[in-house]
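Hello again,

I reread your note about wanting to compare the complex against the isolated chains. To keep things tidy I'm splitting this into two emails, and this first one only covers the full assembly. Below are the input lines as submitted, including protein chains and any nucleic acid or small-molecule components. They are followed by the predicted structure of everything together. The single-chain runs will come separately.
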Amino acid sequence: EVQLVESGGDLVQPGGSLRLSCAASGFTLRSCAMSWVRQAPRKGLEWVSTLSDSGTTTYYADSVKGRFTISRDNSKNTLYLQIDSLRAEDTATYFCARLSGGSGFDYVNDWGQGTLVTVSS
Amino acid sequence: EIVMTQSPATLSVSPGERATLSCRASQSVGSKLAWYQQKPGQAPRLLIYGGSTRATGIPARFSASGYGTEFSLTISSLQPEDFAVYYCQQYNNWPPGQFGQGTKVEIK
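Full-complex prediction:
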């Protein structure tokens, strides 16, 4: 059974940093692309970033490019999202998502339950 | 950058009735369109991929069609558990995971 468990969300001041983690089980991260999708309070879903199955190709939404970094640790089967220079508009629940293929241009097969990031002074 | 537009924003339907949701892409995505259902406090759930293929375990009352830029999701007879927000997502063009803004299906 596929499981995705996010952690790392917290209350952070503007300009601060945070690292989100997504522990995967039931499959290996090398077998598919993975994404982070966020949802601001009472808003819709927003794609944030994707890492290809090879781990060599990354994609970022314009709103986070240069501030967010997606990566993974194969030995821990864990996906990460390093978030720097946090802004109030980054406040959201961040979902980890397993994609159906390896390129990154794929639909989401499985979702984690999300971790909440709140940016406020 | 591709833009996904869903309509209506809110759909009020009585249980047992049929609901049809629309999703339009600003450029062709072929058949690379997925639909998700999200209930309050929960993660989204995959309903449809490839424009019209139901995901594992999705009831037959959910059907979808479309190609290119125009897509629709139909729920043939709304059950109480179907009242939720529905999102379409294209995975053909940049950006790779662009979602529509969602359609809320509420009880009339």
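For quick reference: Residues 16 and 77 of chain B are 4 Å apart (CA to CA).

B.
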